[in-house]
Amino acid sequence: MYQRLLVPLDGSSNANEALKTSIKLAQDWQATLILLHVIDITQFSPQGLGGGYAAIIQGLRDTSKEILNEAKTLADQANVKTSLSVREGSPKQVIVGLANADDAKVDLVVMGKTGTNAFSRMIVGSTTNYVVQHAEPNVFVVNDVPATD
């Protein structure tokens, strides 16, 4: 069915549930997971942070590696193939750009319903909504709260 699943991760509980779901799907379909973390540099101004900009970005890159390595460990334990990607930019634009890139060959995006940045969600809309509206592959949205009957 699906062979390359893009899984954007930001450390939120919804993203973690999306990861668990994507691992199960990848096992069923013998698919590869593309684990992605986007460093949202749109929130920072090099001028406003002065000499601390480089240190802050490096700290965010280190956090990205931690998030992706933890996800890779879970996928490895389930014998699921992965590739890791850290990108910088606007998360919603980076996710859609990678999802729509011909060379990435993504055929399903699996992501959480909400992420870590509630303020940004209120002001400019959710990343998930943007991805659902603009991604060419199908998007599977996972909620961390089980549905009730």
Mean pLDDT: 88
Question: How does the overall form come out from the CA principal axes?
Answer: globular
What is the ordering of alpha helices and beta strands?
Answer: EHEHHEHEHHE
Strand composition percent: 15-25%
The count of helical stretches stands at: 6
Q: What is the fourth-level CATH superfamily? A: HUPs
Domain UspA: 1-142
InterPro entries: Rossmann-like_a/b/a_fold (IPR014729), Universal_stress_UspA (IPR006015), UspA (IPR006016)
Family: Belongs to the universal stress protein A family.
Protein name: Universal stress protein
Give a quick rundown of the structure.
The protein is an alpha/beta fold and 149 residues long.
Description:
It is built from six helices and five strands, in the order E-H-E-H-H-E-H-E-H-H-E. It has helices at residues 13-29, 46-49, 53-77, 91-100, 118-124, 127-134, and strands at residues 4-8, 32-40, 81-89, 108-112, 138-142. The chain has a five-stranded parallel beta sheet with strand order 3-2-1-4-5, with helices on both faces. It is globular.
List keywords for this structure.
149 residues; alpha/beta; Rossmann fold; 5-stranded parallel beta sheet; 6 helices; 5 strands; globular; Rossmann-like_a/b/a_fold; Universal stress protein; UspA; Universal_stress_UspA
How would the blueprint of this fold be written?
Blueprint: E1 4-8, H1 13-29, E2 32-40, H2 46-49, H3 53-77, E3 81-89, H4 91-100, E4 108-112, H5 118-124, H6 127-134, E5 138-142
Parallel strand pairs: 1-2, 1-4, 2-3, 4-5
Helix pairs in contact: 4-6
